[in-house]
Design a protein that fits this description.
With 302 residues, this protein is α+β, with helices and mostly antiparallel strands. It folds into two domains: 149 residues, MutM-like, N-terminal (N-terminal domain of MutM-like DNA repair proteins); 124 residues, Orthogonal Bundle (Helicase, Ruva Protein, domain 3). A five-stranded antiparallel beta sheet has the order 2-1-7-8-6, with no helix packed on it. A four-stranded antiparallel beta sheet has the order 3-4-5-9, with helices on one face. Helix 1 runs parallel beside helix 6 and helix 5 crosses helix 6.
Length: 302
């Protein structure tokens, strides 16, 4: 799942590549992906892209005051294209969810009343795709990002929250640390992968209760959030969209590394599996050498 560093890097990529261009046409290929109807998707046609930003894990493209907001979900991604097919895609069961055509810089939108028709020539732009059969990628066309329910519910951004606020949020949370870090209403931007990395860096069990942290543990956790996310962001920004996923994988220490040695202590990275997700951790670094039971309803290590 794209998380804060990847979504921020995608926003930076679009600020460099798309801002200043006219959004000529947006073609919906997966009807279930669009979550709004007013303004319609067609309202974006002919408008200049004036900004690109992020809200938690939501990507926000500002199109002259109308916002194209995307949540890439677990398996979604943005692919930059320089030779998009001219014909609209046929709706179907493939990975394509939305195709956005931009002017190629050679067309003057004022010559056609503020719109650019790429129906005959194709051009540059990007595809939003989602792999797998479980579809969660969501597209919103709104006048304000706050109209998106998921954005309206977001807690403070993980890279903007200060230490005192972070400590107060953790103290008010009765659940486990893994769930607290990935709860977007508590702190926005952290997902499954970076929560594993943060907890490893902080030397804390994913099952430790958030409201039972000592002062020293709170400091370690807060510092791990900042260093893990800023380090990942530094590696991601400036990458091409096509290389960001590989860059993310190359920087992970425990997430998706089950059975491999921990790069800190050499112990074997372990996994706890749930119904539709899993977490990875190092017993020596995080749980006093004790493996966590790999079943949902186990008696959890505190």
């Amino acid at each position: 799942m794209p998380e804060l560093p990847e979504v921020e890097a995608l926003a930076a990529f679009l600020r460099e590549r798309a801002v200043g261009h006219v959004l000529a046409r947006a073609d919906l290929a997966a009807v279930q992906a669009i979550k709004t109807f007013d303004p319609p998707l067609s309202a974006l046609g002919g408008l200049e892209i004036t900004g690109a930003g992020r809200h938690g894990k939501f990507l926000d493209l500002d199109v002259s005051g109308v916002h194209l907001v995307v949540h890439l979900a677990r398996a979604g991604w943005l692919h930059w294209r320089t030779n998009l097919p001219a014909a609209p895609p046929k709706p179907g069961k493939g990975p394509l969810a939305l195709r956005v055509h931009l002017d190629d810089g050679a067309t003057d939108p004022s010559a056609s009343g503020g719109s650019t028709d790429l129906s005959a020539s194709g051009g540059v732009g990007f595809d939003l795709t989602e792999q797998g059969t479980r579809k969660g990628l969501a597209v919103y066309v709104v006048r304000s990002p706050a109209e998106v329910p998921g954005i309206a519910r977001l807690g403070p951004d993980a890279l903007a929250v200060d230490r005192e606020t972070f400590a107060r949020l953790m103290a008010g949370r009765s659940g486990q640390l893994k769930g607290a870090l990935t709860d977007q209403t508590l702190v926005a931007g952290i997902g499954n992968a970076y929560s594993d990395e943060i907890l490893h860096a902080a030397r804390l069990s994913p099952f430790k209760m958030a409201d039972k942290l000592t002062d020293d543990e709170l400091v370690r956790l807060f510092d791990a959030v900042r260093t893990t996310l800023t380090g990942a962001l530094e590696r991601q920004v400036g990458q091409q969209a096509a290389t960001m996923k590989g860059e993310k994988r190359s920087g992970l220490r425990v997430h998706a590394r089950t059975g491999l040695p921990c790069p800190v202590c050499g112990d074997t990275v372990r996994e706890v599996s749930f119904a539709d997700t899993s977490l990875q951790y190092c017993p020596t670094c995080q749980t006093g050498g004790k493996p966590l039971a790999d079943r949902r309803m186990s008696k959890l290590l505190r």
